[in-house]
Specification:
The chain is α/β, with parallel strands linked by helices. It is built from 19 helices and 21 strands. Helix 7 packs across helix 10 (269-295) and helix 14 crosses helix 18. It is globular.
Length: 609
């Protein structure tokens, strides 16, 4: 059975599942070079079919995890309750009723337009309605997390801005499939609240939420928390997420937030970020713990998906405060991941098929995108006139690159299949020395062309993670936050502790300052020998040279640009930034040896964040 999953939503993409096995999956932005592209993913569909050697006529079913519409049995009654609740809290019930009704109509109209586009584009490829399926948005998110996880029994939490009327869902997963336990509607969406604050702070909602998360560590508990929590949170008595009138954080309510904006203008922006992060965490932890207690659930496994699952700080808190021993987070947690989820959903639910036997994680480190042969790389480099050196063994290559990183060089690292999802996991990465006190600043300003406060993630050998960080579990997808091991930290002076906001930035806090955030935390990627051997061996060589098994890993792109996909993308980024070295497969390019006529100006190529 060949199943094509498609997302033409806020992050378009496609995935192909053949007889229950994930063959390929990709984000459309990597081809279009438009960040978080929302178009119909024509190129993604072409790629996943080509990866399997198939044509459209070979596909049995095509499905979307969006645009099914509000489920009258499950979602509509809860929406009605939330509308009534907001009207009851209002000083002007009639006006509030009209505003909420208008928002829901806009939501429904947009979904219908996307669905019509899906049907039209699929029909152009010669696929009839008999081969098309639609499933609930959050259901597909849930399956995208549970199916590849390897867990038989687990709780599954999904959270995002909105989808088919919902914003949060909780499921019980067993060998028999998924059962919905609880949900929240789009009218009480913690993801939309976060999006509102992202826009309020001058960033782009649905795109720059990670900036707010990074900035939150610079803030403190303040009046901003009181202002936001007065309007939104988890009501334990009612057992549900609630919002009061004037604080309805629907994605379509942003124009109605004038009073709140004026109130927040009196607060430090770092404190606003700190507040919304705290409320997001408290809301989701409260929702989870309440349902676990209410239902007497004893599952020790948790799966996460939906755009909010990319909030690594929140994930870390859920793992710390929930009764979970293990957690698996879908690396393509956003809407593109729904393309994979809906294909797997059909395999499990519609066809009643078991997961393909494979121990543990079946997503193969999410390395599911395009790859390029040695011949293709050489042909491109010769064509553009690049000067390069070729290493005949991976061992020699890794030793050489590790030495350069240890000397402070910044390396573009392009290998194998591209990652599916927003994180670079060692195949489309920029690498640096985590021990360097200047690396974070230099990478942000000279390579990424972005704000200096943005933190970077460490890649660490799995067997060494507990020596350097306060955790001893897998985090292959860079989606968990933990603190630096105390014996590796540097205590701040009394004067340094008094600093506020960005003034906290340039203080050495650990033996690996380039990946230590201002609150002594780090977003971990554990690297495993059995899933990405070449990247593992590079870090192992770096450890042999430096006695440190940690390198800086950030995505191979600049701000505003999607992660590089092709050798051409990688070369252009290399020649348009202050990257020192470029490694594509076993080819190495040194910046100083390139023809200066090939230099590019990347500082203004992509729109400012």
């Amino acid at each position: 059975m060949r199943i094509l999953g498609v997302s033409n939503a806020w992050d378009a993409g496609a995935a192909l599942v053949v007889d229950g096995r994930i063959v390929a999956a990709v984000n459309e932005e990597r081809f279009s070079r438009v960040k978080l592209d929302r178009c119909f993913p024509e190129r993604s569909i072409d790629f996943v079919l080509e990866a399997a050697g198939l044509g459209v006529h070979d596909i049995d079913l095509v499905a979307s995890g969006c645009w099914k519409g509000v489920d009258a049995i499950e979602t509509a009654p809860r929406l009605a309750e939330d509308v009534a609740d907001q009207v009851a809290r209002s000083a002007d019930p009639a006006l509030t009723g009209r505003i909420v009704a208008d928002r829901l109509r806009v939501s429904e109209r947009r979904d219908r337009e996307f669905r019509d586009e899906f049907m039209e584009r699929v029909a152009r490829r010669g696929i009839g309605e008999d081969r098309i399926r639609f499933y609930d948005h959050h259901y597909t998110h849930a399956v995208s997390a549970w199916s590849p996880s390897g867990f038989n029994d687990a709780l599954v939490l999904t959270a995002d801005g909105r989808g088919d009327g919902r914003s949060v869902t909780l499921w019980r997963a067993t060998k028999q499939g998924l059962t919905l336990l609880d949900m929240a509607t789009e009218l009480v969406s913690p993801g939309a609240l976060y999006g509102f604050i992202t826009g309020y702070m001058g960033f782009v909602p649905d795109r720059h939420e990670g900036k707010v998360t990074g900035l939150a560590a610079y803030g403190e508990r303040s009046e901003a928390y009181d202002l936001l929590s007065n309007g939104f949170g988890f009501d334990r008595v009612a057992g549900r997420l609630t919002s009061s009138i004037g604080r309805s954080y629907s994605p379509f309510a942003l124009a109605d937030m004038t009073d709140l904006r004026l109130d927040l203008d009196g607060c430090q922006r770092e404190d606003v970020a700190h507040a919304v992060q705290a409320i997001l965490e408290e809301s989701l932890v409260g929702f989870l713990v309440y349902n676990i207690e209410r239902l007497g659930i004893d599952s020790t496994n948790l799966c996460l998906a939906g755009g909010v699952a990319l909030n690594c700080v929140g994930n870390g808190r859920i793992l710390r405060e929930g009764p979970f021993e293990d957690i698996w987070i879908q690396p393509a947690a956003g809407d593109a991941g729904g393309a994979l989820g809906v294909a797997l959903l059909i395999w499990h639910q519609l066809l009643d098929k078991p997961r393909v036997p494979r121990p543990g994680d079946s997503q193969s480190d999410s390395l599911l995108g395009p790859r390029f042969s040695e011949g293709e790389v050489r042909q491109f480099l010769d064509q553009v006139g690049a000067r390069y050196q070729y290493f005949d063994t991976d061992e020699r290559l890794c030793e050489y690159v590790a030495e350069k990183i240890a000397q402070g060089k910044v390396v573009g690292w392009f290998q194998g299949r591209m990652e599916f999802g927003p994180r670079a996991l060692g195949n489309r990465s920029i690498l640096g020395d985590a021990r360097s006190s200047n690396m974070q600043k230099n990478l942000n300003l000279k390579v990424k062309f972005r704000e200096s406060f943005r933190p970077f993630a460490p890649s660490v050998l799995r067997e060494d993670v507990s020596e350097w960080f306060q955790m001893n579990s897998d985090s292959p997808y860079m989606l968990l936050i933990t603190n630096i091991n105390q014996k590796k930290t540097v205590e701040m002076t009394k004067e340094q502790k008094k600093l506020f906001g960005i003034d906290k930035l340039n203080i050495k806090r650990s033996d690996i300052p380039a990946v230590t955030h201002v609150d002594y935390s780090a977003r971990i990627q554990t690297v495993h020998k059995n899933t990405n051997l070449k990247y593992y061996n590079l870090i192992k060589k770096f450890k042999e040279i430096t006695n440190c098994p940690v390198v800086v890993n950030t995505s191979f792109n600049i701000r505003g640009e999607p992660i590089v996909n092709t050798p051409e993308n990688a070369f252009n980024c290399f020649m348009g930034t202050e990257l020192d070295k470029l490694v594509i497969g076993n080819f190495i390019l040194e910046k100083e040896k390139q023809d200066q006529n090939l230099k590019k100006d990347y500082s203004s190529k992509f729109e400012l964040d």
